[in-house]
Amino acid sequence: MHYSIILNPTAGNGNGSRVWPGIQQQLVENQVDFSMQATKDETSAAYFARRLATARHATETTVLVIGGDGTLHDVLNSLIANTPAHAQQLPLAYIPVSKLSRFARAYGISLDPAGALQQVLAAEASEQVHIGHYHDAIKDNDGYFLNSIGIGFDAALLNQRNQASKRQKFRWSRLAFFSRATAILYNQQPFQLMLNGTTGRLLSPKAYIAMVANHPFTDSRIQLTTTGGLHENNLDLIVAERRGWPLTLWQLHQFYRGRLASSRWAIHQSGTNFHLTTTSLEFCQVDGEPMGNRFLDMTITSTSYPFLQQH
User: Fold this and answer.
1) Alpha carbon distances (Å) from 124 to 41, 120, 121
2) Are 158 and 181 in contact (CB under 8 A)?
3) In this structure, are 139 and 115 located in the same domain?
4) 80 lies in which domain range?
5) How far is Cα of residue 7 from the mean position of the Cα atoms in its chain?
6) What's the CA gap between 135 and 297, in Å, rounded?
7) Is 113 contained in some domain?
8) Which residue intervals define the domain DAGKc in the entry (predicted)?
9) Domain end position, chosen among 63, 91, 124
10) Which burial class, exposed, middle or buried, applies to 210 when counting CB atoms under 10 A from its CB (0-12, 13-18, 19+)?
């Protein structure tokens, strides 16, 4: 087995570069066959993955990502987009360098780099892990996500979290959450959302939270639902409407405590196919990365990709 490593040295506020020497030493001591490429900018990870996907490999190869969920997202999408038709997909493995990794928590990957590496080396066979796929009919583009895709409040909140974590060590305390959440709601207008899911077509005229999640964790410490997971085929759709400040604050309280999905004040559906349409420009995110403001005519489905890692 050969491990083609894609390292993001700036991930986790530079933690990627700090953990690499220890990982390299363990690989050498265990006589592991590996090569490493370090990213230099935001496009490097996708570029390295594209080269790996189109190359002919003399030995079995696993792509090992050392970085954050954003790096893993870029590598996954590039591998899928560039793997030739009928060619075998290169399995992925992941060593997170940030405590904020939602995918690591959902998959059961150790947040200690040494522990995550041992999970990689101990794996004997790859397994199919469920991920999400989206197609935007307006922009005619496709993509894949490991964690979630969100519109409105969820997208703005994750964007603020990411910006804050780049500037300082991030702690999502209750006070910090409600401070950011109320600031977002003061500036955000509810939007009209048409959704087609497991119960047919529904119109939500004053939506402000709309997200489709691949696993229960909306943050490294907030569990969105008690159902679903990376080894189940279903995605979770959660939609909430603005209903006045007292009830909205209660919804935020439920969101923070991971109980919004089971609340009577939210729509929660589990399924493998959803269609979302908006009539206004809304801020969107995928795996915590901003997609910008866009009109939405999006189909979201469940698919899978091989991972070679114990959990």
Assistant:
1) 33, 9, 8
2) no
3) no
4) 2-124
5) 18
6) 8
7) yes
8) 1-138
9) 124
10) buried
pLDDT digits (tens, 9 = 90+) for 56-104: 776 799 999 999 999 999 999 999 999 998 888 999 999 999 888 989 9
Residue 103 structure tokens:
């995918």
Phi, psi values for residue 35, rounded to 5°: -135, 155
Same-domain pairing of 20 and 53: yes
176 shares a domain with 52: no
Sign (positive/negative) of CA torsion 13, 108, 75, 277?
A: negative
Please give the full DSSP string across the chain, using - where no structure is assigned: -EEEEEE-TTHHHHHHHHHHHHHHHHHHHTT-EEEEEE--STTHHHHHHHHHHHSPPSS-EEEEEEE-HHHHHHHHHHHHHHSPTTPPPPPEEEEE-STT-HHHHHHT--SSHHHHHHHHHH--S-EEEEEEEEEETTTTEEEEESSEEEEEHHHHHHHHHHHHHHHS-----HHHHHHHHHHHHHH---EEEEEEETTEEEEEEEEEEEEEESSSBSSSS-B--SS--TTSS-EEEEEEE---HHHHHHHHHHHHTT-GGGSTTEEEEEESEEEEEESS-EEEEETTEEEEEE--EEEEEEEEEEE----
Amino acid at 278: T
Tokens of 305: 């990709």
Residue 301 lies in a domain: yes
Q: Which amino acid, residue 115? A: G
> From the centroid of its chain, how far is CA 38?
21
Asked if 212 and 88 sit in the same domain, the reply is no
Domain count, the chain: 2
- Interhelix angle 174-187/245-256, rounded to 10 degrees, is 140
Residue 310 lies in a domain: no
